[in-house]
Here is the input.
Amino acid sequence: MRPEIKCTLRYGTLAGFCFLVPAVFYVPIRSWLNLSEGILLTMMAVSLVVFVTVHAYTTSIRFIKLEEQLRNQARKVLEKLPNSVWILSADKQEVLFSNEMAARYYGTIDAIEGSQSAFLAFFQNPERVDLSAVNQAFTVRSLVMVDRFYDPRQVDLIVMPVEFENRACLLVLAVDHSIVQQSVEENLKLNDSLVAQNERFRDFSFLHSHHIRSHLANILGITQVIGDQKKLSADVLHMLKKSAKALDREVKKINKILMENSGEINGSSPAGDRVGKVIIFVDDDKVQHMINKRILMKINPLLELVFFENPYEALSWLERNVADILLLDINMPLMEGWDFLHLMKERGINIEVKMLTSSLDPRDIQKSQRFDMVSGFLVKPLRKEVIDEFL
Here is the structure.
């Protein structure tokens, strides 16, 4: 039976029992119970109040349980969604909830006091994500988010106001197009590679059809003309040598084309020419980590890169591991780069350090000269020629 019908029947039965029955059998009930009129009316009112109170209580409990059940079901749905979902407080944009997909790709968020919203730090262009005074749902397309591995992810962001745990919040859902974007980029690279190979095959075909065969035909023709002559004339010998040298040049051209093709397939340089170094980055900016990773991996895929946003975690890692070079940011909210260098010296961590900064302040350069481990300054963003220098 439907709840509203059941509730109506209950109250109808109560009304009939408390008012209709006493109204019809008022006199017999009074004489049978030997009660005064006031006492009988009081009993009727009390029974009504008790019934209404009990029924209201049980109804409220059922409603609360149903609401909790719906809330848990909604939370489970959000947890298992195949998209990254966050729930932020509407006033400070603090992360109150993140689902499994968000934790898998972006990790947990630790807000830093006095800094920009920790959630906005995931975006390469946070100014495009305005979460203040959101009154209705909206979508921001073609954003770049930096995941926990400092790789860029192409996303569309859907933001809508919701109520979460009895407070005004924002639900943020990221629709990830990275796989599609990656497939497109791979297809474009493959297409460029096929075009280049087709160009080489056309060159190879042209050399084979026109140059090699022409010189080979000359040599074969001369050998047929001279026949069984026991002694070759000087002119014939000169023509043979000339055609043989020309044929040798064309064969070398073919070998060069084939070597270039092999180099494109296996990499731009032999693996033996590359050096795999361990490079440490300490910087609170996720976007800078993403940029540095893409640049360095493009230059040398054999590099081992370790990134830290928290300088204390970086110090603990350096005490237990060995690295070739440390790129250290100067201005960080938890600890300045100079304090980091002092702690390195106290803990006996000896490694070459280059300060990574957005500007070249002469006072910073002078201050760096107090530390023997600092070998120079690098300006953000890193450039290939600077990277080649310290690699």
